[in-house]
Write a structure and sequence with these properties.
single chain; 143 residues; alpha+beta; 5-stranded antiparallel β-sheet; 5 helices; 5 strands; 45% helix; PduO/GlcC-like; GlcG_carb_metab_protein; PduO/GlcC-like_sf; Heme-binding protein
Length: 143
């Protein structure tokens, strides 16, 4: 497993929040997990409502769990609701199948972790997650 340096995790957060400011989004929580699903970094903007950490972490954890962005999990709801119910159950409720969880990869395609963002619309959360990853010089996989 390749390590995700703290400096890169913090750069992801900085880049995501800069994009959110440019877009005029609501206050966000941004969680960066390493490839093992452990919290590497987190920031919650002033004014962000409660549960932003838990929701962002759930989006990122879901992405890591299936090796794809959390949008993929969300899209499965229409045709495979039992799959999603099972995933949430076996993860002890750690997975939130909503867009906004994006895989972080290096240039070789190795998964380094995932970022999960919560606070605005799911589409906007996902957009700023991608922007943050790219600002850190890494590759984003949202689906």
């Amino acid at each position: 497993m390749t390590d995700l340096p703290l400096a890169k995790a913090n750069r992801i957060i900085t880049g995501a929040l800069a994009q959110a400011k440019e877009m005029g989004l609501k206050p966000l929580g941004v969680v960066v997990l390493d490839a093992g699903g452990h919290v590497k970094a987190f920031q919650r903007q002033d004014g962000a409502s409660m549960l932003r950490f838990e929701m962002g972490a759930g989006k990122a954890y879901g992405a890591l769990s299936v090796g794809s962005g959390s949008r993929w999990l969300h899209d499965q709801a229409a045709t495979r609701p039992h799959f999603l119910t099972g995933m949430v159950g076996i993860s002890n409720g750690k997975i939130l199948p909503v867009p906004g969880g994006v895989l972080i990869k290096d240039k070789k395609g190795t998964i380094l972790g995932a970022v999960g963002i919560s606070g605005d619309t799911a589409d906007n959360d996902e957009t700023v997650a991608v922007a943050g990853i790219e600002a850190a010089g890494l590759i984003a996989q949202k689906d």
